[in-house]
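Example 9 (inverse folding). The structure is encoded as follows.
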């Protein structure tokens, strides 16, 4: 079965921490949010401090329903965190992205 569900995430530097979520009232809006944890994991991998960030999430993947919202948050958080940190992972013959993701789940 294939479903056409996706999330849109914007993360930017800010003077105050904030998570706004549209389409999903059940999503945690504090530092327990999986997206926030993965951004932190990416900054940790880059050996850089996490700046104060503002997150805006439009999730069409229902939270806590087994449809992949956690997987989406993990991938988005890692990739966004690495981009914000200005860090590149080695690509060929390496599982760094998987190792970062596995450290959370």
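The amino acid assigned to each position is listed next.
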């Amino acid at each position: 079965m294939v479903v056409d569900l996706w999330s849109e995430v914007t993360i930017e530097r800010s003077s105050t921490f904030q998570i706004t979520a549209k389409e999903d009232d059940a999503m945690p809006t504090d530092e327990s949010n999986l997206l926030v944890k993965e951004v932190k994991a990416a900054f940790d991998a880059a050996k850089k401090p996490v700046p104060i960030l503002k997150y805006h999430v439009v999730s069409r993947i229902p939270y806590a329903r087994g449809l992949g919202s956690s997987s989406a948050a993990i991938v988005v958080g890692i990739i966004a965190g690495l981009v914000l940190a200005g860090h590149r992972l080695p690509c060929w013959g390496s599982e760094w992205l998987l190792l970062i993701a596995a450290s959370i789940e």
